[in-house]
Amino acid sequence: MKIFKHVLLGLLFVSAGAFAQDAEKKEKQQGHTNQNKFKQLYDEFATPNMFRTGSGAPGPAYYQQQADYKMDIELDDDKARLYGYETITYTNNSPDELKYLWVQLDQNMRARDSKTPLINSSGIGPATTPSRLATTYLQERFDGGFNIQEVSDTNGKPLPHMINRTMMRVELPKAMKTGDKFSFNIKWWYNINDHVKDGGRSGYEYFEENDNRIYVMAQFYPRMAVYNDVEGWQNSQFWGRDEFALPFGNFDVNITVPADHILDGTGYLTNREEVFSKEMMKRYKKAQKSYDEPVLIVTQEEAEKAEKSKSKDKKTWKLSAQMVRDFGFATSRKFIWDMMAVKLDTKDVMAVSLYSKEGNPLWGDWSTKVVASTLKSYSRMTFDYPYHKAISAHAPMGMEYPMICYNFGRPNKDGTYSDRVKFGMMGVIIHEVGHNWFPMIVNSDERQWTWMDEGLNTFVQYVAEQDFGEWYPAALSPGQTKYPSRRGPAKNIVRYMGGNQDFIAPIMTKGLNTYQFGSNAYSKPATGLNILRETIMGRELFDYSFKEYANRWKFKHPTPEDFFRTMEDASAVDLDWFWRGWFYTTDYTDIGIKEVKKFAVTTNPTEEGKKLAERYNIDPSNLVYFVEEGNDGYDEALKAGEISDLPTVKEFVMDNFTPEQRKEMKSPKYFYQVTYEKPGGLVMPIIVEYTYADGTKKRETFPAQIWRLNDKEVSRAVASDKEIVSIQVDPDLETADVDTSNNAWPKEVKESEFDQFKNKIKN
Ligand SMILES: [Zn+2]
Asked: Domains of the chain, with CATH numbers?
């Protein structure tokens, strides 16, 4: 019979291996054989190598490419067009030979023949606005793609190139070897989009009054793609959502705009004396020494005056930036401009705001102070802000570039604003300024891993928001003691994680391909890090490791493994189980109390106890017995007094311990067996609060590893000299438990939502 079974198994094995379609089945089987939540992440992680080490640090052979830009840009304000001529110098630091270069043409997402609109499903609802009807069905799509007029070498000789949608391949006259530099030119122009109507992270907002625009420009020039050890060329197309992967380099950019425009952007303004009036220079010098209040460089009165006419003259602003991954600028004659100095540990930097009168009084009161506060918080959590300024420019959306970001939040016409507008504006400024660290400096690949910049940044944003509320209590509203953070606290992610699994994807999914983008790529990773910091690792270990990650990878290109590995490497906390559950699955936390049994101790043998003694051939009078509440002898045993006075216990204690040791001994009277259940797939520590009959409380935390041998339920014996009257799991709601109805013993009878509703009606 046995032999027969083996033969059968052998047959099955052969036939399974013979068919390719069985691979999936096999994978499932393999998964089945090792579902352990504490299995190390060897299958999911790339193998460490000379470029990236097992510790999560850059390896001895780590390299990165460099792209330097010299650009002449001109804005045609009448036609809303941008013209550019750029020279890119590309340095190949890789060990590989390169035959061609890939350049990103993000504006082609707005080309007439763009495929972006075609990847979204669309339908017809009961009603729409006339303007939406017009843009969707009546008008030809806005043509905002690049017009590439020239791609040439330094002698002006055309270079063969091919455009595949948002990517352009430029053929090299001769393959680039390690250390080679190659310079080439691109001449281009495009129609700037109205980003209020057509959306986008770059573009203009049009103001009918006085026929003016505010331009916040980004992704406006052909940009080098990243080439590295993990991707080769990162040339995945820009569909509009996923952000960018860019190499570091130095920029020299001359931007010509109407002479009455105010402009600021990435880099040092190298011709300040040329573009500033004497009065502006005086104010600027004052701002460099003003640490508490911003100083206006251009006042509202001056901006309002400038709006009323249009200069026919031009002015060129010259900006120069070192070691940045991108370049952005904002320009308008509507701009009010203020600045304030910020003292960091190792240096002073400038906090800067650009906004129009529509942003006031909110922007004048708060934007620059929020920037300053953010620079301090992020510097503390990572490293001192390495650039010399951080600009917050007022726009209809939030988006980040090195040294400059665009932020929403506009008061009503009469200057009043709600809490939602105020904290929306403060939150977005903190967030976008924070992006200077992730991903502008700790330069992860945003197109591939949205969470590596959004999630990490949203986590530090939460810390920075709490700092801001503490440092600027005047920014809070009446009755508030803390900044009302939206993302970060564990309880705020419960609704998402406990929701319909059909609309949830693991964090390790490309942002473009996920539902509930904000919850997936911002809130969930940020909350996970917050749980690690507050509940699993503790602030000291977490902060040290997080800082180590930021410092290891500043001005470099980290991958997810580099983050996961560094957090473990610097803390001696094995977190594979946490990364697996929180980042690679859509499991949620649900831990509860299944049952609690109460016992008292006696020397009177119980029926069960006698059976045990018999089985092991022990004299029953040498044992102590636990009687469960509700059974014969329980009340008697509880009343019997000190447990150490029980004859058998006494004998053991007298014989084996010194009088000093005896004095130190505890004398528990109440015994409990608490069984915890885990309907949720995630493993988490069990945080328990016991409440005693005298009203006092005690907390105890069992590490997540308590689930390592049984993923469904575990029991713990508790001995206590005081009676426990109730037990609560996760009393501070710090594990994102999606169902708290099973968290208490005895079960709390909560009024259901329906009953609440019924009672409300009655009242
Ligand atoms: Zn962001």
From this structure: 66-117+135-448 (2.60.40.1730), 588-762 (no CATH)
